[in-house]
Design a protein that fits this description.
Shape: elongated
Largest sheet: 5 strands, mixed
Strand content: 15-25%
Radius of gyration: 32 Å
Oligomer: single chain
Number of domains: 3
Bound molecules: tryptophan
Strand order of the largest sheet: 8-9-10-12-13
CATH topology of the largest domain: Rossmann fold
Number of strands: 16
CATH class of the largest domain: Alpha Beta
Distance between the termini: 58 Å
CATH architecture of the largest domain: 3-Layer(aba) Sandwich
CATH superfamily of the largest domain: HUPs
Length: 524
Amino acid sequence: MTEQMTTSSRPRVLSGMRPTGKLHLGNYMGALYNWVKLQHEYECYFFIADWHALTTDYADPSLLKQNIFEVALDFLSAGLDPDRCTIFVQSHVPQHTELHLLLSMITPVSWLERVPTYKDQQEQLREKDLATYGFLGYPLLQSADILVYQPNFVPVGQDQVSHVELTREVARRFNYLYSPKHVATVGDRTVTEPDPDKLLLPEPEVLLTPSPKLPGIDGRKMSKSYGNSILLSDTTGDVESKMLRMSNGGQRPTSDVPGDPDICPVGDMHRLFSEPHVLTHITQGCRTATIRCDECKIMAAASINLHLHPIRERRARLIEDPDRVWEILDEGSARASKRAEKTMQQIRAVTGLSRDRSGVRLHQPFQELDKSASRNLTAFKDWWDLDAPILTRNLRERWRTDLLPSGKVLKPDAEGVWITQKGQRILVAVAKQNGPGAAWEFSAKPKSYEMLVLLCWDENYYLRDFVVPQKLILGEWIAAKKNAGKSDIKFSVERSGDRYLLHLLNPPPIDITSTESEYSVIPG
Ligand code: TRP
């Protein structure tokens, strides 16, 4: 796969299937057939949900690996192309389980108990003990599967819609808790809410797979548990003999009695797989009793076999080289893992789980008076080259945990804005010195703040914090805000001898030297 394809800007799609054994025509028409088409238009991730299989089959995992292999063979035979989409095994991408555990922290148990498939499946599979923690978490694991790829769409059948709905609710809760906030105006109120442009877990949409009526050979819905399936891997002969046994819906007791193909399971097969002229032929023949059911069934078998022919050919080639199948899964898992890791890095950073040391106090509070020690960030010099948004976030965190005196309680508001106990808004702006003697260049949203904290990181990795009360700059800030209009206010801090000068819109600059580390202006 080329780099261009992996980093494509096509909308992203993700879906999965439990490895329950060889796939039948129902699985094929209800999912795979659609996936094969999607891989040409979207950036696709398709996986084998082995963890999900264990939620119900934990007592007997002996067939799991075999089933994974069978499903992989079915995926590839059906036409999923590893050069066009990423095919992988869920458990081989550990980020799924990591996100699942994290999401479990924020998901109310009642949300899971309320998912309609929970009670349904428990009752249907009463022979298995499904009063487990893992089974309750089934749809939440599915949410993690989905969200870890930040996809736009999830192609599923109607039976999975409630799981995607849960996924959207969990994403919303996650974003409410951890995504960057902005201040928005709703009617005449301003609210702080997740910034829609910066959501860590965007809510994906269902791409509903049309599920055509596909009867099994006994006329009931085709299902593995009914033993009425035609498998994707059946031979031509298997398909013929199964079709010959197929129910005709109890019509035509003898061949001279006409029937109605619209209510006949064999008619359903023709409607899905036969060419229009065949369909016309059997429709007329059935209604006029001029063809027999066995003739009609053989024709349906031929149509199915025509469809399965290329699938069988691909399967025959793959089975010659099973190592290649495992290799495709390995490559797919590596590719998927790379994409999932990108999401997890963003997520670990906001949940205290990242491995960098941002947000950790270097000094105990009693050392607070030792200003220069906590402001010397030589230990963090690897931050110097970080992208601006990440550097800004790290320095703000360091400021909050290490420079802000511990008695000052601030509530986070929009990104970079904190509210004091008295309801005053503080903007914490960050700049690094680009070259010896260079000024610190800031930009800020054109709003009103009661205080500005200006963090100036210099070439010696020393961080200066100026706590500038609004009254020092009032007129100038208003002028700069007017001038900026809708764009950000630009301003700078310059060092001149031992003085620090703030340049807003109009000269003269304002001397802010005495505000350095001067936190008495913040209540608390
Ligand atoms: N629960 C799905 C099913 O039974 C399989 C699945 C697991 C899935 N994780 C998913 C489907 C993520 C879509 C997206 O069919």
